Here is the input.
Amino acid sequence: MAQAETSYYVPHGSHWPIIGSVAVCTLMVGFANYLNGVSWGTPTMMVGLAILLFMLFGWFGTVIRENEAGAYNEQVDLSFRWGMFWFIFSEVMFFAAFFGALFYARQYSIPWLSGEGSGVATNTFLWSGFEGSWPHAANGPENIGGDYKPMPAWGLPAINTAILLTSGATLTWAHHALKANHRAQLIIGLFLTVALGAIFMVLQGVEYVEAYQHLGLTLGSGIYGTTFFMLTGFHGMHVTIGAIILAVILFRCIAGHFTPDRHFGFEGAAWYWHFVDVVWLGLFIFVYWL
Amino acid sequence: MSTVAADDHHDHVESPYSIKRWLFTTNHKDIGTLYLWFSLIMFFIGGFMALIIRTELFEPGMQFVDPQFFNSMTTMHAIIMVFGVVMPAFTGLANWLIPMMVGATDMALPRMNNWSFWILPFAFTMMLSTLFMDGGGPAGGWTLYPPLTLQTGDALPFVILSIHFMGLSSIMGAINVIATVLNMRAPGMTLMKMPLFVWTWLITAYLLIAVMPVLAGGVTMLLTDKFFGTSFFNAAGGGDPVLFQHIFWFFGHPEVYILILPSFGVISSIVPTFARKPLFGYASMVYATGSIAFLSFIVWAHHMFTVGMPLAGQLFFMFATMLIAVPTGVKVFNWIATMWRGAMTFETPMLFALGFIVMFSIGGFSGLMLALAPVDFQYHDTYFVVAHFHYVLVPGSIFAIVASVYYWLPKWCGNMYSEGLGKLHFWLSTIFVNITFFPMHFVGLAGMPRRIPDYALQFSDFNALATIGAFGFGFSQLIFLYVVIKAIRGGEKATSQVWENAEGLEWTLSSPPPYHSFTTPPVIK
Here is the structure.
């Protein structure tokens, strides 16, 4: 990295944003048509995804090149920090909506449908005889999706918790190495983190197969299956994205990027990973365990 | 170093007739201009839909459109006005003004700034295209309540995904505002020295980041309920349609403050200038804005009093809602106290600001009536509600946006607008907006329901009046379009300060300001 610029870097015009808009719009139009059962929906989605990947490579590539050339001063660095922090906060609020749905189903809708409190009339006249309970009979009065068994917490989920917590520790170990300029330890730590993330995703896949094939638990298993798969599914998506981000950071470390005192790319990825970790703890407690 | 363009090359500005300049721009003023024009175009599209609604309601019976289309007009009109007009207009103002007001070169994250804007034309093309699909556009109301909304035809996934897209734009815009305000202020520009417009936008940005993802989550649930067999809003599967209303209004109530808080900032800039006195109670204005933002998160269920809520819930949401009147009252008091014994003049921006204060307060008072759970049982889903939120949004938010355009237009383009036409625009708008919306209070209290294309005979006279007002208001806005274009093309040159008593860093720059606002930070006393 060259010496830091003194003035705030304002880039010239960029064609990446408009390419991003075209990409996301194509992706969405394709997806909507796929949902409506139109045959060209899926290929359109693929095209959109390809443009999106092209845009991500191009845009992040530009930022990385500018950064390595020393165009960003401390103030630019701080803008990136604020940006990443509030982006993660917006993600937290996205998960909050789904956790809200989970708590609402557990605290209100299932008990009300079972006749608790003001739900007496609903239960008597609409769903007579329904006695719902979380997690065993939580697919509603019409037993939507058929009988199912809930996912036990103290099997794979507990192992996955240990894996994800360990990955947080290896990442911090790598961060300390980066600050102490121990590049080998940095690369090993990052590699371990990405590998643990990948193992986590494989085990999540095994768990999903187990749910569908042996427990009768599907996305369509009433509100239990709905909240289970939507929450763990969105979390898994975020783990995947986080692992890809960390893999990019790993390659950048191998390429010799980052210095002991300037490495926000690394830190931003680490923040994201810890966020994914914390969401998992919420999932483990409220979806699997309690 | 040589591979990276340093930022002193910036003097070269591409011609305004170059498409590349507008597509690729990372300049806060260009992006602000794009936002504002986009908003104005959408204002005329959304307004046209409103006129279709009012035409059908001119007299009882079914005359012009079928009910399905009528309902998709009410739905689209709302979505466009909220997400396509008021929000982009305020983001445009933020782009133009915040860097100048805090003494920065540009927004903190210029490329992302471009993307925030360039999402919108795509998202709204998707949204508008649903009108031509099988089953027509979305017709279940902008609140998208299930199960009704799940009966939408092919339009449903397009509507939902375009809302995701708009949310992406708003969140990125908000992140940019926060990073700019927190990180780009000139030395000496402490938080409590910032103009109130910057303060109100900072707080609005927090609201946006906190609630747009919740809306995204809610509409995602609609999508999976419709297409992937989930049971979020299906009681047979253990879910609850009312859950959607909670999620929607957890977003929706802060959203209405997103639509109004920047207006408070605008009015707090304009009133002191034309009263020739500093703003009364600056600190209390900041705290009031923060309090309103906080309260907005704990009042959402006042939109759902009739849904069947436990009594304790109704009481909590009723009292929490009424609390909002306190900080809002502080603001109105401060604006009036600013004018007290001021040397007032009544140029167009001041006229719109005064119109705002009076008519927004009318909307605020009807809001207070609606906050009372027992009487809300009568008002719920009637035209009284329509009258209420149009008073806070049209002579509220829209008037504030128009006021700010008149106020800052000479700064932006370097030319004065035509004061005579501006005043004409104000008086016509004010007269017609009241003719349109005031009668709706009466028909609403008498029981006329919203979102229905026909009505009982006794509501005829007031509805005919409202329709006349709506056409008058709509066509008056063409004057605005003419005034803006005329000022951009030429006219009396504006000075740097433009207004005799205008204070703030933006008035220290030339009119029009240089392409990059403050390349060296200004000194703040």
